[in-house]
Amino acid sequence: MASIDWISLLPDLTKAFGETFFMVGISLFLSVLLGIPLGLLLYVTSKGLFIENVIINSLGGLIINIIRSTPFVILLVLLLPLTQNLIGTTIGPAAASVPLSIAAIAFYARLVEGSLWEVDRGVIEAAVSMGATPWMIIKDVLLSESLSGLLRGLTITAVSLIGYSAMAGIVGGGGIGDLAIRFGYYRYETNVMLITVVLLVLLVQLVQSGGDYISKKR
Amino acid sequence: MIDLQDIQVLFLEKTRSFAAVNNVSLHIEKGEIFGIIGTSGAGKSTLLRTINLLQPPTSGKVIIDKQDVTHYQGDQLRKLRTHAGMIFQHFNLIHTKSVHDNIAFALKAAKADKKEIAPRVNELLDLVGLSDKKNALPGQLSGGQKQRVGIARALANKPKILLCDEPTSALDLETTNSILDLLKDINKKTGITMVLITHEMAVVKKICHRMAVMSKGSVVETGTVLDIFANPQYEFTKQLVEHSYDFDLPPRLLHNITGKILKIVYRGDKAEAPVLSDAAQNYKVKLNILHGKIEYINDQPLGVLLVNAIAEPEELTKVIHYINSQVERVEVTHG
């Protein structure tokens, strides 16, 4: 086994990391931006809550379930026309961010909904009894009380995204996973694959620990 | 102040509907502390929630201050709720917000002027004796302190009504008393109307003026607390009153006893007449006190004595008749 040529590998590695961060970053950002409202919508429209609405609730639930039950590889392909429309290309990290974001939003929305169910119903009732508006209840009760759960969910989403982003290599998305497959699998450079795997493990570990730390501080 | 007219609350279950509250009508006077007592599942909590429409009644009317509020919605309903504070068994404070922010939340809900929030919060904390806990999180407080924050929060917008949902059921005896004293004090100072539900007779006895007894969704008895304790009509109420006295005699004593055991209930000025010694002088009867208690409900004495009376049957009937004419009532509980 030949020793690894670090110098020649380094540009590939940094580029791959950059692409992974880009894809995961965009998807995470969008899952916070859209996943939290979607999770909130699912929660507050469910039975017995203050904006109960069966139609919106089941429709939202259905869409999320469709996205979540489709294997990510399939979703990647299914969404190619949409990606083409939005980005103008189907290749590259930006293009891969489209299906990644959609999967992440649906995934995180469910986690958000789960965290909201953990909020003490009595506290919500108390807020309603004080004449608080739905917006006040969402902002000062629901989001405030579920914050540590929301952060934990975001950590889980980030870790899953790192995994999903590896599959993005299939549409030429790039990233660390893609590097591992190209060098390790196609070119039989096991060493490179091992290094990328170790780096991925470290990255996931870092994200998880960081997420745990922040959510515990809350 | 509060008029509940033919309130019915139906819950739909899979196959049938279940009446949690069944045709209840109640009138609650301005400034009184009104207690609703019943076992769990009696519907008292549901009934209480119809007053601020947390639980809209299936049928019937909720009238507050001569206004029919039953169909209030949106802003109108929110405004109504800011005028009716509520406290809860499990306090229901926002765990992630400080004591100050919890109280400020109620003020913000009522759209209070930002400048007025801080001084009002201080004033309220002063009222409930928690000025030093302003920046504490609920998790750092004891149960009694949490309930005090709950009370401060409920009173933030100077409501006319305070709804109390088992406010002391999660507290120990000593804390219960201090919370009840606080509520009583607030009622006296501000003249706020309070509706309090509980399953503990001791709570009703300590602070309520009038009370209703609920069983299986219906109000079975209403009256002043003293009247109901002195003379419970309904079987369920009798049991509740009985339990609260805890007048169990040891079986050994019941086994060896001759004659009858009388339960004598007396109240008010009659408590001062020497009924028993008169009876012993005027009739051929031996009287022996086995158990007894005098309680003060709304500052009026209510006495209960268990007396062993030994006499010839005919004489005994006369004695019972005589005592009965002198006191609230006499019951033969044994023999």
Distance N to C terminus of chain B: 48 Å
Outline the low-pLDDT stretches of chain B: none
Q: Strand share of the residues of chain B?
A: 25-35%
CATH superfamily placement of chain A: MetI-like
Estimate the helix proportion of chain B, in percent: 25-40%
Write down the secondary-structure element order of chain B: EEEHEEHEHHHEHEHEEHHHEHEEHE
Elements of chain A, N to C (H/E): HHHHHHHHH
Question: Could you tell me the radius of gyration of chain B in angstroms?
Answer: 24 Å
The CATH topology of chain A comes to MetI-like fold
CATH architecture classification of the largest domain in chain B: 3-Layer(aba) Sandwich
Q: State the CATH class of chain A.
A: Mainly Alpha
Question: Describe it for me?
Answer:
The complex is a heterodimer of chains A (218) and B (335). Chain A has helices spanning 6-44, 54-69, 72-78, 80-87, 93-117, 121-129, 134-167, 176-186, 190-217. Chain A is mostly helical. Chain A is elongated, with a radius of gyration of 20 Å. Chain A starts with 5 loop residues before the first helix and ends with a helix. Chain B has helices at residues 44-51, 74-82, 99-109, 114-127, 143-155, 173-190, 201-207, 225-230, 235-245, 251-256, 275-282, 313-326, and strands spanning 2-12, 17-28, 33-37, 59-64, 67-68, 84-87, 161-165, 193-198, 210-215, 218-224, 260-267, 286-297, 300-310, 329-334. In chain B, the strands form three sheets. A six-stranded mixed sheet of chain B has the order 6-7-8-3-9-10, sandwiched between helices. In chain B, strands 2-1-4-5 form a four-stranded antiparallel sheet. Chain B is of the alpha/beta class. Classes of the chains: A mainly alpha (218), B alpha/beta (335).
